Sequence to fold (535 residues):
Amino acid sequence: MLPSFRYVRPRTVSEAVKALAAEGARAHAGGTDLLGCLRDGVFDAKSVVSLSGLDDLKGISPTKDGGLKIGALTTLAEVARHPGIAKGWPALAQGAAAAASPQLRNQGTLGGNLCQRPRCWYFRGDFDCARKGGEICYAVEGENTYHAIFGGSGCFIVHPSDTASPLVALRATVKVVGPKGARSLPVEKLFVLPAVDHTRETILAPGEVLTEVLLPPPLEGAKGLYRKVRSRGAWDFALGGVALALSVKDGKVASAGVVLSGVAPTPWRVPEVEKLLVGKALDAKLAAEAAELAVKGAEPMSGNDYKVPLVKGAVEEALLALA
Amino acid sequence: MADGKDDRNDLDTNGGVSRRGFLGSVVPAAVGVAVAREALSAPAAAPAVAELPAGEPAKLTLVVNGRTHKVLVEPRDTLLSVLREKLGLTGTKPGCERGECGACTVLIDGVARYSCLTLALEADGKKVTTVEGLMEGEELGPVQKAFVEEDAFQCGYCTPGQVMAAEGLLRENPEPGLDEIRHGMSGNLCRCGAYAHIFKAVDKAARFRKER
Fold:
């Protein structure tokens, strides 16, 4: 049985903001991550604030500039099967389709997928780890097969989302509403590295709700994909992966978004690789060079050095698939 | 029978239990039912927030397999526990209870979801279908029949969840290919490893549904 909590179902975003600003309040979108965390005692909730009554935050609609607005409560299944997203922003459609299981995609939301807590077994387990306010990251001396090879510092989680990396690659923005009003920011700026604060994954302050994701209009000659490598063919988190959002003009890469998943505490953008690709024709030689550069500076731990060649291979393969 | 009210679970006569009308009417938490009706007729009066204190049971109307039930639930009750323990619909199985195994799969508004990760309060106003709801009178429904014919289980514990996942898949995609079946069934684990037979059963169920 779940621990006891107060249940609140606001009918407007401003009521949600108020309810979420209360001490010990936790947001419930699809609830799939929240209920698991509560059951496992990862954290408590004095109140669960269900966003399911906020119909304005559901659905996908075009924006004036040719982009797309996706309400934060749109399910992953809806994102995955939306023909417009598959055509204009394929990396996102593929990321949403690769996440979790069919049932979880029917229930889990895009906003929830970005705001979910990490899957590190020390964080989820009965360990007073650094992310839960304890002294140490147990992964450093312990079992770190699924942990970070980039960006770890005091905590070595990997970000579990399959939609975050595509959204960063696509230069998407999110709208956040809070007690002080609304603000928009690039998805990339939503996430927090452990070196900045190892007890949180997003910049969301108490009372702040992620309300929508905005996709910019597709660039001319846009191509993209999300490549996820996992232990099983389905229903597993990424061991490593890459989201690509390229535009190609006159046979040359005009712009590039390259963001790794499953290897760092946040979606891991590799600007050096993006820079390398721009202005060049994408061929086998360039793909190999880019893949090499993508894993430069990796700092594997005792049990996860396999991730370096894995991600390198995934980047090379993904680039070749778009060549 | 369909859409009929189930008297066993009508709690109106159950005096002495702390209860309040919930979510069907939008009311401030501390207001009683009679006052709530008044508040509804004067919409400006009440804040638009529905809430329920921890541990407090409230009366929830659930539509399951076409029948309307009224049950007392508290915030932490999952749909899984309410289906099994309050409505006696034990076809839906508890497995991992953390959204990994799929044994608790039901349809909510026609879509397959894990009932262990769904608060009962979240099913308010939605149509729930459990494995019991797939019967066609005294006969097995097409997906159930296909599972029997293809011997798609050994111990059978995961079967109701597998059947509901298949039903959800076929409602969305009535003619799935093998790859689509494998993908569509990937949220359900079978410890006996009957997967090959399960995939055949889903394929056969698609044909049964078409012939209906």
Remarks:
- The CA atoms of residues 124 and 156 of chain A lie 13 Å apart.
- DSSP finds twelve helices and twelve strands in chain A.
- The interface with chain B takes residues 1-12, 15, 19, 28, 31-32, 35-36, 39-40, 46, 48, 50, 52-53, 77, 100-104, 106-107, 233-235 of chain A (CB under 8 Å).
